[in-house]
Amino acid sequence: MRKLRSQLPLPDHFNPHKVGEVWRVPYQERASQAARWAQQHNLQPSANDDFKLALLLVDVQNTFCIPEFELFVAGRSGMGAVEDNQRLCEFIYRNLGILTHIVATLDTHLAMQIFHPLFLVDANGEHPAPLTSITPEQVRQGVWRFNPNAAASLGIDPEYGQRQLLHYVETLRTSQKYDLTIWPYHAMLGGIGHALVAAVEEALFFHTIARNNQTEYEIKGDNPLTEHYSVLRPEVMDDPFGKPIGKKNEKFIRMLEEYDVLVIAGQAKSHCVSWTISDLLEDIRLRDKALAQKVYLLEDCMSPVVIPGIVDYTEQAEKTFEGFAQAGMHRVRSNQPVQEWPGI
Known about the structure:
Elements: H1 27-40, E1 53-58, H2 62-65, H3 80-94, E2 99-107, E3 120-121, E4 133-134, H4 136-141, E5 145-146, H5 151-154, H6 158-174, E6 180-181, H7 198-211, E7 216-220, H8 251-258, E8 261-266, H9 272-287, E9 295-298, E10 306-307, E11 311-312, H10 314-326, E12 330-332
Parallel strand pairs: 1-2, 1-8, 2-7, 8-9, 9-12
Antiparallel strand pairs: 3-5, 4-6, 10-11
Helix pairs in contact: 1-7, 3-7, 9-10
């Protein structure tokens, strides 16, 4: 077992009851408190860490994590993402002294994207309702087609838009993925839903000041012609003519090589988190299977998508995470001291 510094107490400003709310972080006040906290607890700049621990937070944004927002991840408890983020904030504060670096992804969308209603129309010019599935058969038959009125704003011609739509849904099918889902407008750039959960943002800012390490933000999902569930790559990477429309993100494989541990949390366990880990595992298998043992999945800081009476991805997510564990990754909980995690 590796000897690591003990967990820290929670700072007085942290209020778990506000985690499910939207509010302004008082940056200057928190900066002063973080500096004093670092001095009080003898926290050194993270550049001096011998044991390097990175934390990857997937899409911990209001749109997924605040009740009444567009795609709140409720889990089976009904308050899943809120409860997850309460534990996540506590994990960050208690492990401030050993958390070297934090990366937060930001799902980032505009109205005219392939998975939003405005991108498609039917024969009457009507847009599909949210949660509509778009199949290759429907596109070939003209049930759904590219909205030609969106072409100018996207800088493409209507024929190209139609060919891309058909290519996209056919590629999803041949890749044995899911059919294209039309999502409610969410994570809209410039909107409140796009922002990180305030309590989490506050914890990341506090860490930045206390450890002299800038939180890194990774934008994903802003390409209008493809989805981007995973942090590592878009769902479809080429257009109908074989021209690249997206590329693979090599950053997180490099992080695995540079850091002793990569901890992953975020939303939703059944979707963006699972696909991110799956893509990471695929790269690990190509590079070095032993790297999987550096990955720790903070399972009580993520929840699956559950819509009562409609869909419940809990069991599917569980099966997927069992596969991650079999590949060598570790399933851990936030209230367990890091030095007690397997392999530390």
